[in-house]
Design brief:
Number of helices: 3
Order of helices and strands: HHH
Structural class: mainly alpha
Distance between the termini: 65 Å
Largest sheet: none
Number of strands: 0
Length: 97
């Protein structure tokens, strides 16, 4: 199971490296004046940068463990109910005394 997650992470990392290399190549072309961006090019680039930032943030923070939900059994419920009834009876005796 762990190996599957590691393989997926490696694929994502490889894709990110490919995107970075492609971005570097396009930037070099723009710097040389060989490529002129248009307004319609800005939205996909903006979305891609936002997604990359989110992925980087998520990767650096790691996944937070999900809190484990406490399972209450019928025995737990019965014990709590009996203790509450005993406490209520004790309080009624003190009020009456």
């Amino acid at each position: 199971m762990v190996q599957i997650h590691q393989t997926d992470d490696l694929r994502k990392l490889a894709r990110s490296v490919e995107h970075l290399l492609e971005f570097r190549y396009l930037r070099e072309q723009m710097d040389k004046g060989e490529l002129k961006p248009t307004f319609s090019d800005l939205l996909p680039v903006s979305v891609a940068l936002e997604k990359a930032e989110r992925q980087a943030t998520r990767a650096s923070e790691g996944q937070e463990p999900q809190p484990e939900r406490r399972v209450v059994t019928q025995q737990d419920y019965d014990d709590t109910l009996a203790a509450a009834k005993a406490r209520m009876a004790e309080l009624k005796k003190k009020e009456g005394a």
